[in-house]
């Protein structure tokens, strides 16, 4: 946000959000999470300090050169969509996604896994270190700490539903259970 000392705070700036989480799929279906760009501009998932990453229950660093156009969604999974073609085809069939392109609409593999009870997930971007010679520091772009207990919906806990974000407006936190609902999984539903 732009500094506003002595004045009304400005509205938060919109950015890429974690939009859908399949953390406990039924049977042999795959876990995934989806990112969404609700802004009116293309967002590069890298800068001069490095590439963006997922941190928390799963860890994943995006490749250089990845960007999200306005309204775009991408999905991140625990398998390598470039190398595990049969698994990719099975994922597309399981969730009815249509054709997914590794490195464009689907990314992976992440390390770790999504807990079936409670987990923190963060989308982070790098920024230059405070002191020369130190490693980069990380800025949280969006964060969700979900759970399988009230006030979070229960059907995503093995019942076949995914957690879907209700509003990507920056005034509504990803950590607010009231901003999430249980719904049929719909990974990468791009316009």
Describe the structure.
The protein is mainly beta and about 190 residues long. It has one domain (about 15-185): Sandwich (Immunoglobulin-like), CATH 2.60.40.1260. It has one helix and 15 strands. It has one helix at about 85-95, and strands at about 15-20, 30-35, 45, 45, 50, 55, 60, 65-70, 75, 105, 110, 120-125, 135-145, 160-165, 180-185. The strands form four sheets. Strands 10-9-2-1-14-15 form a six-stranded mixed sheet, with no helix packed on it. Strands 11-7-6-12-13 form a five-stranded antiparallel sheet, with no helix packed on it. It has a two-stranded antiparallel ribbon with strand order 3-8. A hairpin with a 2-residue loop joins strand 4 (about 45) and strand 5 (about 50). The relative contact order is 0.23. The model has no long low-confidence stretch (mean pLDDT about 90).
